[in-house]
Amino acid sequence: MKTKAQLAEKFSGFSSLLYQSALLNIADSYEAVSSTTGKNPKNEGWYEEGAGSTYTPTTDTEPGQGKTYYAKVKTFTVTPELDVPCKVDSLNFEQGEADVEKYKVIGIAGAWVTDSDPGEVDYSFRVPSISEDILKLAFGEDAVSAITGKVDNVDYDGLALILKNKKVQGTWLIVNSSKDRIMVINNTALFASLVLDSDAKGVLAVDFNGSIESDGTNPDIIFLKKKA
User: Fold this and answer.
1) Most buried of 99, 172, 182, 188 (most Cβ within 10 A)?
2) Residue 206 belongs to what H/E stretch?
């Protein structure tokens, strides 16, 4: 039995919320196995490298002398475009309870058949900024334009905003407080709204609310730990 200490993989704290407009592109990669002693390469699912950097499953049942084996792993690259300012305690990520359906028959107290649908994810946060980049992210490139004006004989310049309904898609990264772990949220679909945050004595902010549109193939959540 594994102990509590062995199961203690912790993710806590929050230092940054990063954004990339593109969804993750997951690809296969092959990494050399560092230790093969006492292993069965075939049972481990290892590969051998062939001509032209091609990899085929090995048929070896014990490590070959001087032979290099490769393990297939999933890999991706993220290049964040924005380090989004997020209000403290506004970041919420929660999967709802599963929708459980119970089929019963006469004469039996318990369920005859039990099935369920996974609960939907609620993902939301508040951004206390009306920068051009944040407004374009929230409402679209064509919703924001430069403008000048005169108010009481004083000249001003700024931004004009059309409150368009835009689905904000992409990849979000939540970085923990010690910056050695990252939670990657993929397949997101968020919608934005302007709000005057009275909790902070009138800070104008943008709320993002939405969920995950899972495709059932690519990962929705990825937990990363910095390599030693």
Assistant:
1) 172
2) strand 203-212
Residue 5, token pair as written in the block: 């200490």
For residue 6, give the DSSP letter: T
The predicted model scores a pTM of: 0.81
Encode pLDDT of 121-141 as tens digits.
899 999 999 999 999 999 999
Inter-residue contact 181 to 226 (CB < 8 Å): yes
Give the residue from 78, 76, 87, 75 showing the smallest Cα distance to 170: 78
**Under 8 Å between Cβ of 48 and 56:** yes
Report how far apart, in Å, the C-alpha atoms of 72 and of each of 46, 56, 57, 208 are.
Answer: 7, 10, 10, 37
Render 77-124 in DSSP notation, one character per residue. Answer: -----EEE---TTT-EEEEPPPEEEEE--TT-SS-SEEEEEPPPEEEE
Contact residues for 185 (Cβ-Cβ < 8 A; gap 6+): 93, 123, 171, 172, 173, 174, 212, 220, 221
Task: Kindly indicate the confidence band of residue 200, based on its pLDDT and cuts at 50, 70 and 90.
Answer: low
Cα–Cα dist 160/148, whole Å = 9
Answer yes or no: is pLDDT of 228 > 90: no
Secondary structure class of 7 (helix, strand, coil):
coil
